[in-house]
Amino acid sequence: MKIKPCIALFLFTLICSVSAGDPKIEQALRETDDQWSKAAGAHDLEKTVSFYSNEAIVLPPNGPTVTDKNAIQDMWKQIITDMQSMSWKATRVEVAKSGDLGYVTGTYELNIKDQTGKVIEDKGKYLEVWKKQTDGKWKCSADMFSSDLPVGPAEKK
Fold first, then answer.
1. Which of 5, 19, 53, 115 has the most CB atoms lying inside 10 A of its own CB?
2. Mapping DSSP to helix (H, G, I), strand (E, B) and coil, where does residue 49 land?
């Protein structure tokens, strides 16, 4: 898998700037991430999308980068329409020394219909970069997730 140099540099900078962060901030991020998971699991499109910052970027598996709030909403609308159930759980939360940037990693479970209507049971992992906004709220500014399922045969075009 190839990571774009700017994303790799951003992640390297983020990881190098974290320390044993403020436990209160780490808990706030963990709780916010849990609320986000519950909103998605409840098929609440508006609330699900509200966790993203205005300048957010999403790197979904097997698809192009999503960089526009309307496109993020369209992406989630498709996911929520096709999914039977979804949840995720943070396994690690780190906060930058500055206290205004952090990342959350974890695992997800998703039951979703494929193009034929067959329900696929998917499990995978995710990485979210959170940024504290001027109003003090935390918003996800970068979101990346990928499946643990083996890659299937390539589709013929």
1. 53
2. helix
The domain limits of the chain are 22-147
Q: Considering the domain delimited by 22-147, tell me its CATH architecture.
A: Roll (3.10)
Task: Read off the pLDDT of residues 64-84 as tens digits, 9 standing for 90 and up.
Answer: 999 999 999 999 999 999 999
Query: What is the Cα–Cα distance from 66 to 128, expressed in whole angstroms?
Result: 14
Mean pLDDT, the chain, rounded, equals 88
For residue 129, which phi and psi values (nearest 5 degrees)?
-110, 125
pTM of the model: 0.82
pLDDT at 62: 86
- Distance (Å, rounded) from C-alpha 82 to C-alpha 114? 8
Which residue(s) pair with 147 in the sheet? 124
60 contacts 88 by C-beta, under 8 angstroms: no
Arithmetic mean of pLDDT, 117-141? 96
Q: Strand 138-147: give its sheet, edge to edge.
A: 18-19, 83-96, 101-113, 119-132, 138-147, 52-59
Quickly list H helices, the chain. 5-16, 23-41, 45-50, 69-82
